Amino acid sequence: xxxxxxxxxxxxxxxxxxxxxxxxxxxxxxxxxxxxxxxxxxxxxxxxxxxxxxxxxxxxxxxxxxxxxxxxxxxxxxxxx
Length: 81
Fold this sequence. Notes:
By secondary structure, the protein is an alpha+beta fold. The chain has helices spanning 18-28, 52-67, and strands at residues 8-15, 42-47, 74-80.
């Protein structure tokens, strides 16, 4: 059986406070029905291996040290596949 080169898909999603500012601006412009706004960036990172816990830990470390400015950004790590 052939195994996909993409053993583990993962996403690191960042959200920023700008989403709240955009939400407020949209409402002040009269855009009705805005429940929430998420403005941010997404990193799709492919990892080799099958250990989900190791993948998640590695991605959280990468986000903390490199991918996110944790002073002003929050992030979620989602291991897919």
